[in-house]
Amino acid sequence: MKLFDNAIGLISPGWQAARMRSRLQIKAYEAAMPTRTHRARRESRNANQLVKSGGRSLREQARFLDDNHDLVIGLLDKLEERVIGAKGIIVEPQPLLRGGELADDLAKQIRAAWSEWSVSPDVTGQYTRPVLERLMARTWLRDGEVFAQLVSGTAKGLKRDKGVHFWIEALEPDFVPLNQDVPGSNICQGVKLNDWGRPVSYNVYKNMPSALYRSQDLKTVAAENMLHLKFTRRLHQLRGNSLLSGILIRLSALKDYEDAELTAARIAASLGMYIKKGDIYNTDTDQEERELDIEPGIIFDKLAPGEEIGMVKSDRPNPNLQSFRNGQLRAVAAGSRGSYSSISRDYDGTYSAQRQELVESFEGYSILQDAFVAAVTRPMYRSWLNMAIAEGIIDVPPDVDPGSLMNAVYSGPVMPWIDPLKEAKAWQVLLRGGGATEGEWVRARGSSPADTKRRRKAEIDENRKLDLVFDTDPANDKGAPDDGKSREDDK
């Protein structure tokens, strides 16, 4: 083939070049070749360059929609509910004895101290831990990232009468400068890195940057004292970008379209009727101006000769609006790890269809939940526990395995039950077959196994003390009644 091309080149070099160009096009992917109908848009910049050029704009657009767009407000509210929940991330300490058994007394001691600290964990004293976690999750998903400084010991302006001297200072991404790059010092976008690209420290504004009347000085926070939760889609990305980055245009366009349809519907609803004047209509300059009072069931007989009443035809509201809007909402759900039913509040469908959507969508919620636990809850809990042990609030017995001291189970909201009876029967089958534990069953209802068992035992003991008998206690359940029908069925 090469010899043939060379021979053609002696006669017609242009023909040879065209043949070689066509051969390269055949070898390449079709999608890689720009055409009239395919523009083949490409992105050659790295992740940090993208965030630096558009991160602030995306963040501010997402904040505007969170303040003014009902769909975005509902979307972020639903992500808060599914990722963090009303009770926040539940932490169940699991320290073990050297023999491998659970150290119950130590676990109870840690749970009590953790619950007390969770009442007021932040430096402002305004939020409980569940509220703080929900706000941090919303900031993370909307703005793309959130920071939190760990404050231990004593500090000016911070006072705690009892409990662990440990606080959280939650920070919006504006506190870490996005445009601060010092190549010689390995500082990129306000984060100092080592030679491996690992964060060493963060440069943080002492006050909110938008507060012009306050100082814009920076302070350096060591990486071990800073929590950084970011939403990324690429490797080597230092700062996060908004979860809504891929659907911002669609959301803005959908809001504009709905506003236009609403305006058209309001105009159509304001239109009434018109009087058509015929050829034999006679203009009478002395005739007084007529005023027509229209009411339901009216019989109007005051038309002049040649006049005719006509109605203004309206095509509003648009009958295709709902189907078009639902299609757009499905695209929004696909680009935000949400579910269509939750975003649109449209719950039509069978039990199987609803549960299938829940099963598929909750894996996305679980991924976000795992990211939040890994970047915020787990390091926060371990730092708090180290401080509690150092202050002597937690007394660690000598027979506890030191390697298991930080063990804990972190659980957030679980998939809701569409039909509780069906779900409960399924869990009973799993328990009887050895495929699940009672603790997993309780966590599937969004509760703590230890708290549930403690309250359950207190309830049963009190009923027995007062000689109260309820069928909620399995000991009082005598089984199915032995009636004639059951005996016939046994035969």
Automatic annotation (TrEMBL):
Listed GO biological process terms: virion assembly
GO-annotated molecular function: structural molecule activity
Region of interest (Disordered), ranges: 441-460, 465-491
InterPro entries to which the protein is assigned, alphabetical: Phage_lambda_portal (IPR006429)
Origin superkingdom: Bacteria
Basic and acidic residues bias locations: 475-491
Short name of one Pfam family: Phage_portal_2
NCBIfam families: portal_lambda
Protein name: Phage portal protein
Organism of this sequence: Morganella psychrotolerans
Lineage of source species: Bacteria, Pseudomonadati, Pseudomonadota, Gammaproteobacteria, Enterobacterales
